[in-house]
Write a structure and sequence with these properties.
four-stranded antiparallel sheet; alpha+beta
Length: 182
């Protein structure tokens, strides 16, 4: 009876680590948790006790995922499946096409299902924006009252709307100032 309890306990203990993703670093350290995403520079893994850990992409030597990951390649293709990575090569077990291999240098991004869904929603929003999605700017008003030899009241209104042209540049649309003096 005692031996079966011990075996059951050990199976439960190891089942938790088997169902998690694992990242092995070049210095031999291992991180166990859930792979969230990578942008090709850093890999974000969410661990149970350390929280979210950013690992430099170049410091990773191996990776094993228990969940499906979305690998976006630099040539525009996306591969979906469980990933085993070692020796600068990613082996992806896809459901549709079977095993696919990609080099580490060819991978532009890695996302789990939740991150991929958020990414797809952002891409869809950028493809079909609403009227006010990308407008921002400034509205400036001013009021000046002077008294002395002559009284004057001046009101001014100026605006500067801008709309993005690309992900990193903004285009400002010049607008004239409107003012009224009395």
């Amino acid at each position: 009876m005692r031996q079966s309890e011990w075996v059951t306990g050990m199976l439960c203990f190891f089942a938790g680590s088997v169902m998690a993703d694992q990242v092995t670093l070049k210095n031999g350290d291992r991180l166990t948790g859930t792979i969230v995403k990578s942008d090709g520079k850093t890999l974000l893994i969410k661990t149970e006790f350390a929280g979210e850990v950013n690992v430099p992409w170049d410091a990773m030597s191996a990776m094993v995922s228990s969940q499906s990951l979305h690998l976006a390649l630099k040539d525009g293709q996306t591969i979906v499946g469980t990933v085993t990575a070692a020796d600068n090569k990613f082996d992806v077990a896809t459901k549709e096409t079977g095993p696919v291999t990609a080099s580490k240098d060819a991978v532009a991004a890695v996302r789990n299902d939740a991150e991929q869904k958020a990414y797809d929603q952002q891409v869809e929003r950028l493809r079909h924006p609403h009227l006010l999605d990308f407008w921002s700017g400034m509205l400036d008003t001013g009021l000046s009252l002077t008294r002395g030899n002559s009284d004057s009241l001046t009101y001014s209104l100026a605006s500067k709307p801008c709309v993005p042209r690309s992900a990193t540049k903004l285009r400002f649309i010049p607008m004239p100032s409107i003012g009224k003096a009395r």
